[in-house]
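ligand=NAP
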Amino acid sequence: MTPLTGKTALVTGASRGIGQAIARRLAADGALVAVHYGSNDRAARQTVHLIEKDGGRAFPVRAELGVAGDVDILFAALEMGLLAGTGQGRLDILVNNAAITADSIEAITPEAFDRLIAVNTKAPLFITQRALPLLNDGGRIINLSAAATRIAMPEQPYAMSKAAIEVLSRSLAQVVGERGITVNAVAPGPTVTDMNPWMLDNPEVQQLVGSGNAIPRAGRPADVADVVAFLASEAGRWVTGQIIDASGGCFLGPRI
Ligand code: NAP
């Protein structure tokens, strides 16, 4: 029996990058995984295919976040998939992973900032609100933050959108602890995904980025997925309200 046998999980933004790695890992651990995505049908189908090829169970959930009715659309498809897969619409694990980046302070517009907050901050809040009645006692909420909240990086608006996620994680943990539900944030550093196109297929840039880490290489999606899997598992039951850095020690301090 695998650690998450009989459990259900929703991973937002699971068609690519870190979300895909999380979905694959939770499914490999035995969970039925709802693979949420925004628009890239092909990538979502590929994620479900990879999970099924490895013997896991998953179904796609398409819902663009940051637009009117987004949470309603997401939960209609989620509940249908859970019912079909388990006979009931209950959830054990929620991973709020979907997010976008934005320009820094010199270039960002009010419209772009509104969209950033709508996708990165408002959507996770209201997805969580809607998920809470569906979550079984002993459930897990894991929110993707970023090392950019801890380190000064030239992405102020993005870091602002993620700082709110950390506050939500800590304060919600206090509220749902009585139900045995844990809430944590996982904060990756620079990781090789589509979010950083300048790193893709570029070993030299990856090496340069990794040189700022205590473990001197760039992050990979599986590095982060394994931390999420720990928090989602029974072994993670006593960790709540925390921000878990998963960056290989990004900019810990000077190398002397
Ligand atoms: P990514 O490769 O760009 O993938 C983004 C995923 O989110 C895709 O599945 C995409 O769906 C979905 N998505 C994006 N905007 C959406 C929207 N408006 N509505 C619905 N779905 C949407 O991202 P990633 O690099 O894996 O990042 C995953 C998480 O880690 C994010 O929370 C990010 O902030 C955090 N993080 C990443 C890094 C990094 O260096 N990569 C560092 C720190 C933190 P489609 O395929 O349909 O577009």
